[in-house]
Amino acid sequence: MTAPQRQPTLDCGGVEVGDRLPPLVIEVTATVIVAGAIATRDFMPVHHDQRYANAQGAPDIFMNILSDTAYCSRFLTDWAGPEAMVKRLAIRLGVPVFPGSTLTYTGAVTATSQVDGEGIVEVELRATTDLGDHVTGTAVLGLPVTARTG
Amino acid sequence: MPDETGDEAVRFRDRLVELVGRPVGSGVSVAPDPVNQPMIRHWAAAFEDHNPVYVDPEFAACTRFGGIVAPPLMLQTWVMATPKITGIAERGGSPVETEGDGPLSVFDEAGFVGTLASNSEFEIERYLHLGEVIAASTVIESISEEKQTRIGPGHFVTWVTTYVDEAGEVVARQRFRILKFRPDSR
Lengths: 150, 186
Known about the structure:
- The structure holds two protein chains of two kinds.
- By secondary structure, chain A is of the alpha+beta class.
- Helices cover 21% and strands 35% of the residues of chain A.
- Chain A has a single domain (12-144), classed as Thiol Ester Dehydrase, Chain A (Roll).
- Chain A has a five-stranded antiparallel sheet with strand order 1-3-4-5-2, with helices on one face.
- In chain A, a hairpin with a 2-residue loop joins strand 4 (118-129) and strand 5 (132-144).
- In chain B, strands 1, 2, 3, 4, 5 and 6 form a six-stranded antiparallel sheet that branches.
- In chain B, a hairpin with a 5-residue loop joins strand 5 (152-164) and strand 6.
- Chain B is of the alpha+beta class.
């Protein structure tokens, strides 16, 4: 039996400043929000109990921050591949995300370098809904550098 | 509410200065369970993250990680306290019963009762493997001067969580910033 073939990890040499990451689109439902909250072990009622959220002044349950950072890492490694390492992720939080919204992650490469034999790629990213920016931020990924012969 | 120009305001500022360096919560939180495949699989399914290094041992063994690794942003999940579901709403959403007032009660007493998460920043030194038990300690790093924001006056509070492995080596650091604000009544 051979090792399963999956998408390859990007070679740092092939990444250029200005490259755009394929967008990640999440159709947000109550199920999406609750699944994310519980998988991250966040039991705050505002992320699963609509009545509680209403009593807090929110129109509905809303996505938790651990889900935001989870989707950020998925967005990055869906593009960069399984051996990419998320070294840094810094996000600023904007408008909340409620069921019924479409959450779209976009991003682009802002810098590339090599440090200690590892490719370093910096990315600027943003997640938006029709209400505005939900998340804006930056990330640093480490990519293995393929040894080239000849 | 404190008189901004009186002794009360001076005393409030002194109390804020004292908070810097203080632990948040119980000090050190040890993960209730080691890094494990069932929780990783649950997480990967919830976010539909199909990265094989999280769930496919055969694939992961051939990567630079040398085996299954936990999703890097699961860090906080490993150290979340086991929640007590009964009474969670009555406790204002706090998943666990806390003894006494936390350090941030200083703000509530001064009328800065609102809380809004503003920034989260992770620096990740290495990925975690199955079986590792991590611990996290959190201290208040800084408190801003009072700022006028679009939702009312408030202070930005930044805390730093340091995640360590069983050998005490740092695996990651997280900076988290919230705004404690006085809701605009106008």
